[in-house]
Design a protein that fits this description.
By secondary structure, the protein is of the alpha+beta class. 38% of the residues lie in helices and 37% in strands. Strand 3 and strand 4 (107-120) form a beta hairpin. The longest helix has 29 residues, at 147-175. The chain is elongated, with a radius of gyration of 31 Å.
């Protein structure tokens, strides 16, 4: 009886050891270090985006839709006359029409909204055009970076990040008593915040101005960040 228990226990221990051995990689990499470094460049925002919209209500869906179309067409006439590719681009945004319901759950009318978006690098032209449009009201105002500016700045920040990554890898190798390192894997990531909206109070101030006055906007600065991360093999 004792011999039987001993054999069973030994078999159990042997099985456990086999399972444990399978969980340990036989050829796991040695002397590998994970590192990360970043570079950043502050730059003036050079793109402005202004969305303008209006809301219409009525008992008849076709009438509401016609009112929205009339308001949008009038705004488009002004905006397209001032449009310059890359400097002031014009595009339509959200256009929706939906029923309104009363307390009894039955439809009591229709409500719709339409949107026009002005965006580009010519901030003065965009703000002036927005001030001339009277059939739509101010929505969101946001600043960002043009593709050309972002590409240039990202390149500068990436150069910083890679240089710092290499310096950090060399320092780590030296501190651990190695003569150098080889790069195993690396990834490069950059932030992309797009347009940064300004407080809506700016739009409220713009509405209080004279009909043809430019919308009061002022570009700020933003920071483009690039991060390099990966692993190196010390040698």
């Amino acid at each position: 009886m004792i011999a039987t228990k001993y054999i069973a226990t030994l078999a159990l221990l042997t099985g456990s050891c086999g399972l444990f051995a399978q969980q340990i990689p036989m050829n796991s990499p040695q002397n590998v270090v994970q590192l990360s470094a970043s570079g950043s460049v502050e730059v003036q925002q050079d793109m402005l985006s202004i969305s303008m919209n209006t809301v219409r209500d009525g008992a008849d869906a076709n009438a509401v839709q016609t009112q929205l179309k009339t308001a949008l067409d009038a705004a488009l006439t002004i905006a397209k006359a001032a449009a310059v590719p890359g400097q002031l681009d014009v595009r339509t945004g959200n256009f929706s029409l939906y029923p309104r319901y009363g307390q009894n759950g039955k439809p009591i009318g229709w409500q719709g909204t339409t949107e026009l978006i002005l965006e580009g690098r010519d901030i003065a032209r965009i703000s002036s055009t927005a001030g001339k449009i009277q059939t739509l009201t101010m929505g969101n105002v946001g600043f960002g970076l043009s593709r050309e500016q972002r590409t240039k700045v990202e390149g500068e920040a990436q150069t910083q990040a890679i240089s710092r990554f290499k310096a950090k890898a060399a320092d780590v190798a030296k501190d651990f008593g190695f003569t150098g390192y080889t790069l195993r894997e690396v990834s490069v990531n950059s932030n992309d915040q797009g347009f940064n909206p300004n407080p809506r109070v700016m739009a409220m101030q713009a509405k209080a101005m004279s009909s043809d006055a430019p919308v009061p906007v002022e570009a700020g600065r933003t920071t483009v960040l690039v991060t390099v991360s990966g692993s190196v093999q010390l040698k």
